[in-house]
What we know:
The complex is a heterodimer. By secondary structure, chain A is an all-beta fold. Chain A contains no helices and 11 strands. Helix content of chain A is 0%, strand content 48%. In chain A, strands 2, 4, 5, 6, 9, 10 and 11 form a 7-stranded mixed sheet that branches. In chain A, a hairpin with a 2-residue loop joins strand 5 (44-51) and strand 6. The termini of chain B are far apart.
Amino acid sequence: DGGITQSPKYLFRKEGQNVTLSCEQNLNHDAMYWYRQDPGQGLRLIYYSQIVNDFQKGDIAEGYSVSREKKESFPLTVTSAQKNPTAFYLCASRQVGYGNTEAFFGQGTRLTVV
Amino acid sequence: SQKIEQNSEALNIQEGKTATLTCNYTNYSPAYLQWYRQDPGRGPVFLLLIRENEKEKRKERLKVTFDTTLKQSLFHITASQPADSATYLCALGNTGGFKTIFGAGTRLFVKA
């Protein structure tokens, strides 16, 4: 089955620790995205990538880093510089091109600082 | 700055009635508008897309309207069912653009 997979579902981070969230898609989509969702707020864009080996900062990139070494993979690292990382993180992919196709989302990773 | 507003208060309706959710936006001229459904602890799922030159779109029990003058979209679920209970997100984007802006969503509860 085609889809987008995030792991782990739940993640706990200690203060000062870096953690990496995985996102893999087998939809052959060019574009991939990372969003953060907090209660009562819309999805906020962290980073996005249109093609392999290229990515751009979104609206709240500080304290996060990404890589796009393969078309199907777009991992997100939450660094110790991110002061308030507790949130629900969503990865999405989309086909590029005219038609404004919809975004396909993973099931999310809930990150908690302990 | 660009802003999307959806009712932050939950909408409670009786089964069989029509649910109507509102999405308003400012400082933006979107080429299209999308509606997504999100269940607790899960990622959003795409429902419908409507383009700027379309007034209305239907899919089964769902209907979306798009008024670019009022800068508003209405999302209707007819003959609502308890299984329709979820959070519904509105999203805007531009042609060829890679960034989609999402609203915070409206929580819908359908009582049997």
